[in-house]
Each structure stands twice: as structure tokens, then as C-alpha cells.
Fold this protein.
Amino acid sequence: MIEAISFGILQGLTEFLPVSSSGHVFFLGKLSIYPTYNLPLMISIHIGTTLSIVFYFRSRIKSMLVALKKIKEISYNEERKLWKYLFIASIPAAIAGIFLERLIEEISTIRLVGTCWIINGIILVFGELISQKKREQKDINLLMSLFIGIFQATAILPGISRSGATITAARISGMEAYKAFEFSFLLGVIAIIGSFLLEVIKKPEGFTGVCFASGAIAFLSGYLALAVLAKIVKLNEMKWFGYYTILVGFLVLFKW
């Protein structure tokens, strides 16, 4: 039970903070201090983290759902455009997940994680410097959504943060800080559900109270991580996560 709860906390925090949950999961798994693979547990945590995003952005998601019903109302044009660009931005990651997931699993090593952590840190540090020199524009467009989608696809590598990559790409493109944060995590709902469906294909076993507890913890820690990250993005302080992943990346390469 303690391991499962720790698992929920770790996954909830690292899923959203730009430090790469997949990198931490892989690394701790290799050190044998991470729970053995358990599909029902993974599904529970995926549900918990997804619900934390839905709850955090509940007002925005509600208006997006209403927009699907009221197709002809001009007042919902922005929401309909957002749906379109979220779909476009999801394509690169979907292609990468379908065609490259097995290959990535085969080539993944602790040294690859360490290298990707360093790359992740560089993306965050230099991406923040570049974004601060960009003139902000409010509206996302086709090229911006594809650019963000390509960055999201790189997160298939263990050690590259999905949230860090997409927020950085959005900011580099000129998107305002909170809009970049919002777009990243609305896009994340689609990505997490997609990975959840891939997990389900592996034939789940039975669910237990431990799964429920871990999912609930993932929801709470995920919501906390979202609230913290929203403030950090607004303050242009993502670089500190970059320094962290660069440091642990070099430590991993030095040790292994």
C-alpha cells in the first residue's frame, strides 16, 4: 500500500511538472525501488491524473463541450478553433506512439534517460530565454499547433517532459504564458487518454482498493502540481526545473 501511494504521489507530480514522469519511473524501476508493473494500478493513476486536469480546467472544458453542441453560435468560435488546433497538435505524438513506442522501449537505458534529462533541461533553460525575447501573440495558428505537437512527440523519450516541451514550444511560438500552460494541459488530456488506451490493450487484471487509493493520490498531487506550475510559468521560472534535470542527468551519466 505504501509503495502504491508513493507511486501515486510521484506520478501525479512528475506527470505535470516538467521533469519527465517516464524518466523517473524508468530510473527508479531500474533501481528496484519502484512498484513492479501493474496494469490496473497504471490505469488508476492515469485516470487520477486526467481527472485532475479536467477539474483544474473545468470551466474551460465545459465551454469547449458546449461549443460542440452550439455549432452555429459565433460566441463559441474560439472554442471550436481550440478543438481544431488541439487535434492537429495531437497528430505527431499519435504517430510517434504508434510507430516508435516499441523501439523506444527496446533502446531505453539509464544512460539514455540521463542524456534525455540533460536535453530536457536545455530545452527549458534556453526555451525560456528565447520566449522572453519574443513578442507575444494571443491566437494560436496551424503552424504553432504543429510546432507544439512535434515537441510533444519528443516526450516519447524517457527523460523528456511532455509538459515542459509543449509549454516551451508554445512560449517560443509567441503564445502568452497562461494560454501556453492551458493549451499544453488540454493537449495533455488527449495524450494521457491515448496512452491509457494503449495500456488497456495489454489486458488488465483485477482492480483493488490499493488502485483506488493510488489513483486518488495521483489526482490530488496532480492538481497541486498544476497549481504550482501555473504560477511558475507566469513568473518565467521554468528554468529551475531545467537546472534540476540537467544536474540529475549528469549524475546519472557519471554513475552509470
Q: What stands out?
A: The chain has a mean pLDDT of 88. The first helix runs from residue 2 to 16. The chain has one domain: 2-32+39-255.
